[in-house]
Design brief:
The complex is a heterodimer of chains A (305) and B (244). Chain A has 305 residues and is an alpha/beta fold. Chain A is built from nine helices and 15 strands. In chain B, helix 4 links the parallel strand 12 and strand 13. The chains are: A alpha/beta (305), B alpha/beta (244).
């Protein structure tokens, strides 16, 4: 195994880099640009039990050092993902993939997870209980420890694959949610989803986004993500996947030192479609300069002493 | 799609709030009129999508209007400045449907992609009519450039300060074989209702990535959900669903 290898819930990753759900489609747009098999894995577009168009446009707004999105989980539904997207994905990506699942009820999550459990290429289920852009569900599961635990427990009953619960930062105490998921049987935690925000068009005197609010991502949220990954790493003993504003090799090292065993990269893919390739190429040199032999040696390193 | 560094060779104001920029760089991925480039601007997170106005060898021309922070920064750029561009984005216009006498209908900064289209159609020997709409005389640009290509040009201004007073839909000539249009959405919607032949519409939307990854610019069509940036920006008249 190479210097970049790490492990996520018992599955070896050649690299800690994981493009985050909603920024990488089902992989094939990016596979035209570079060999995406250099990635550890990627988390595909959030999947729901039923097809969804999502929110009206505008769905995107710029912010200082980041962006707001209110896509609203546009996806073709779990059945079409399995019958149409996964076969296409398999042609360009040969490693286990992370299936990102969202829902509006516990039954939704269970339905989608049970179906995706039968797919051999799915390595992990990333259960998104933190989407801020849908109404009646989504994030509410991620802001209440009891609901978070219930989703986790019910999903665990229908899958043998590792379940990683993706948490919302829009809470008072994220460690309470993380612990509730761990106690309910989660195999890992990923964080953070986007921070809820808004912008107003001062000429039109209206919110920029048709959905009024959206989720903030990009470099602006890196310090928030680092703090939350740090806290969750201290609070649980299951693996933590860190994300939020990572856009270069230094950010990857920083996030892993905060406690992440792997990192997800989101909106950076949208402004620089080659960013994950470039970080992969830059990491070994940076590790040399920092005296890091194997990247897994630095997981949580900033907590020592 | 390609990512490459372009060098600004010219950046000049050609009408009120309207600028023409020429850039040198690798244009090999731009294969059709109606495609766009996505420009990284230092200090801003999102790239700015701008349609291709013209292309010759590896020299790209774009025309943009200053409507916000990104385009205002662009207006201050000097020759020699280097910019990261994603090129070859979007589907572009399908020229094979033009027939012998296509009509091009452009409004304001929707006009630039029609210039490259007009040039290509003229190279194929088509009799091209260009109907160009502006708010007022001070905002007009490129009517002579279309004439120099050999197009039959009609100009409308909303205030009547030049050409026919009114909107493009007040001046649509009869007898054309097909049409291509680009402009603000209210104009596109009016053109949709005012035209009798089939045609193609180029749409604008706020984009996240510009290459189909983020679903930020999706719209509903007769044939299902489409991404303006990847499955568009050009849609056929028959597939458009107007919302609101």
């Amino acid at each position: 195994m190479g210097r970049l290898s790490t492990e996520l819930c018992g599955i070896e990753l050649d690299s800690p880099l994981i493009p985050a759900s909603g920024t990488f489609g089902y992989g094939y747009e990016f596979a035209e640009l570079y060999d995406i098999n250099m990635l550890g894995t990627f988390s595909f577009k959030g999947t729901t039990a039923q097809p969804r168009f999502g929110n009206p446009t505008p769905r995107i707004a710029e912010t200082p050092s980041g962006m707001l999105n209110a896509v609203g989980l546009q996806n073709p539904g779990v059945d079409a993902v399995i019958s149409e997207e996964l076969p296409k994905l398999a042609k360009v990506f040969r490693k286990p993939v992370m299936a990102n699942v969202s829902g509006f009820s516990v039954e939704d999550y269970v339905t989608s997870c049970a179906k995706l459990d039968s797919q051999s290429q799915v390595g992990w289920l990333e259960v998104n209980i933190s989407c801020p852009n849908v109404h009646g569900g989504g994030m509410s599961f991620g802001t209440d420890p009891d609901l978070a635990a219930e989703v986790t427990k019910e999903v665990k009953k229908v899958t043998g694959k590792p379940v990683i619960v993706k948490l919302s930062p829009n809470v008072t105490d994220i460690t309470a949610i993380a612990r509730a998921c761990e106690d309910a049987g989660a195999d890992g935690i990923s964080l953070i989803n986007t921070l809820m925000g808004m912008r107003i068009d001062i000429r039109r005197r209206k919110p920029v986004l048709a959905n009024r609010t959206g989720g903030l991502s990009g470099p602006a949220i890196l310090p928030v993500a680092l703090r939350m990954v740090w806290d969750v790493y201290e609070a649980v003993s299951i693996p933590v996947v860190g994300m939020g504003g990572i856009s270069n090799a230094e950010d990857v090292i920083e996030m892993m030192m905060a406690g992440a065993c792997a990192v997800e990269i989101g909106s950076a893919n949208l402004t620089d479609p080659f960013v994950c390739r470039d970080i992969t190429e830059e990491l070994p040199g940076l590790m040399d300069r920092l005296g890091i032999k194997d990247i897994k040696d630095i997981i949580g390193a900033a907590h020592n002493g | 799609m390609k990512e490459s560094v372009f060098t600004v060779t010219q950046n000049s104001q050609i009408a009120t709030l309207t600028y023409l920029m020429r850039l040198d760089g690798d244009c090999s991925d731009i294969i059709r009129p109606g495609q766009f480039v996505n420009i990284r601007i230092e200090g801003l997170f999102l790239r700015r999508p701008i349609s291709v106005c013209d292309l010759a060898d590896n020299r790209l021309t774009i025309i943009y209007k200053t409507v916000g922070k990104g385009t205002e920064i662009m207006a201050g750029m000097k020759p020699g400045q280097e910019l990261s561009l994603l090129t070859g984005l979007g589907n572009g216009y399908d020229l094979s449907k033009a027939g012998d006498s296509p009509l091009l209908i452009g409004g304001g900064v929707g006009i630039p992609p029609l210039y490259y289209l007009a040039r290509k159609l003229r190279e194929e020997g088509k009799a091209v009519t260009a109907l160009l709409g502006f708010n007022r005389k001070e905002e007009m640009f490129f009517e002579n450039e279309f004439r120099e290509l050999g197009c039959d040009v009609t100009v409308t201004t909303a205030d009547g300060s030049c050409g026919t007073k009114g909107f493009v839909t007040d001046a649509i000539p009869a007898g054309h074989s097909y049409f291509y249009t680009c402009g603000p959405e209210p104009m596109l919607s009016a053109v949709y209702r005012a035209t009798v032949t089939s045609g193609q519409f180029s749409f604008e939307e706020r984009m996240g990535c510009g290459f189909g990854a983020c679903m930020g610019c999706s719209c509903r069509t007769v044939t299902g959900y489409k991404r303006i940036c990847k499955d568009g920006p050009v849609l056929e008249k028959e597939e458009i669903l107007w919302e609101d």
